[in-house]
């Protein structure tokens, strides 16, 4: 997504928050976490996110609370959420823009520093969703070598890069079998985050105190006690 005026966008959405009685500080915190990741990825139309990363940014500890707030932001029309059932693929978020309306007249009864253009919330429906999804342009790496170079720059192994490339190449660079990937680099970052998360979870598991002392190898030293 190009030409996003992030200052006007934030002004618009924060004013909407102030006018929305259903919005609480936790909603604002989670939305700003989404905005931070959206900004870091240069405002793509569709953003792949990692729930643990977002929870950390928003200072949310409960996964139940995270999903509740996310659904409420979706229902209020601030963003669209496409959950993923694949543990290797993050969920997708579509951030609705609040900087696309023309400048509106200011209320002269308030100081200039307090005046923010107010924009009308566009109701979201299935027709709008279809138009948004159809407007996405798929972006995939030109070839495997591009992916290998990217993972090399990220100080990741060539084996991991090949696994990533072969997995998405086999499914046509689509998410959930239908949604085209619009930013493969962001997808690769999510793959890396997920791989590190799985690795950390495995290393955190307590090791058994019981050894299989009867298991032998060719290099077994039979001078050692069982």
Structure description:
This protein has 226 residues and is mostly helical. It folds into two domains: 6-102 and 115-134, Orthogonal Bundle (Arc Repressor Mutant, subunit A); 144-204, no CATH class. It has eight helices and five strands. It has a three-stranded antiparallel β-sheet. Helix 2 packs across helix 4. It is globular. The N and C termini lie far apart (65 Å). Residues 103-116 and 118-122 have low confidence and may be disordered.
Overview in brief:
By secondary structure, this protein is mainly α.
Proper CATH architecture of the largest domain: Orthogonal Bundle
- How much helix, percentage-wise, in residues? 40-55%
Q: Any idea of the CATH topology of the largest domain?
A: Arc Repressor Mutant, subunit A
Number of strands: 5
Question: Which class best fits the helix and strand makeup?
Answer: mainly alpha
Q: Round the Cα radius of gyration to an integer and report it.
A: 23 Å
Q: Roughly how many Å apart are the termini? A: 65 Å
Spatially, the strands of the biggest sheet line up as: 1-3-2
% residues in beta strands: 5-15%
In this structure, how is the largest beta sheet organized?
3 strands, antiparallel
Total helices: the number is 8
CATH class of the largest domain: Mainly Alpha
Q: Note the overall shape.
A: globular
Q: Which parts are unreliable, with pLDDT below 50 for 5 consecutive residues or more?
A: 103-116, 118-122
Please provide the ordered H/E string of secondary-structure elements.
Answer: HHEHHEEHHHEEH
Q: How many domains comprise the coordinates?
A: 2
Mean pLDDT: 78
């Amino acid at each position: 997504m190009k030409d996003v005026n992030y200052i006007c966008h934030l002004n618009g959405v924060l004013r909407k928050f102030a006018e929305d009685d259903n919005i609480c500080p936790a909603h604002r915190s989670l939305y700003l976490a989404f905005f931070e990741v959206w900004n870091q990825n240069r405002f793509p139309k569709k953003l792949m996110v990692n729930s643990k990363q977002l929870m950390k940014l928003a200072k949310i500890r409960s996964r139940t609370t995270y999903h509740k707030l996310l659904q409420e932001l979706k229902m209020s029309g601030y963003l669209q959420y496409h959950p993923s059932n694949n543990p290797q693929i993050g969920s997708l978020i579509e951030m609705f823009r609040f900087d696309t309306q023309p400048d509106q007249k200011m209320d002269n009864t308030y100081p200039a520093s307090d005046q923010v253009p107010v924009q009308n919330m566009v109701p979201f429906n299935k027709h709008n969703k279809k138009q948004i999804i159809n407007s996405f342009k798929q972006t995939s790496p030109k070839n495997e070598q591009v992916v290998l170079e990217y993972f090399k720059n990220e100080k990741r192994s060539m084996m991991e890069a090949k696994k990533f490339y072969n997995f998405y190449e086999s499914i046509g660079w689509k998410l959930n079998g239908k949604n085209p990937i619009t930013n493969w680099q962001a997808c690769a970052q999510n793959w890396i985050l997920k791989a590190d998360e799985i690795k950390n979870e495995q290393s955190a598991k307590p090791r058994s105190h019981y050894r299989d002392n009867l298991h032998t190898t060719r290099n077994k030293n039979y001078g050692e006690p069982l």
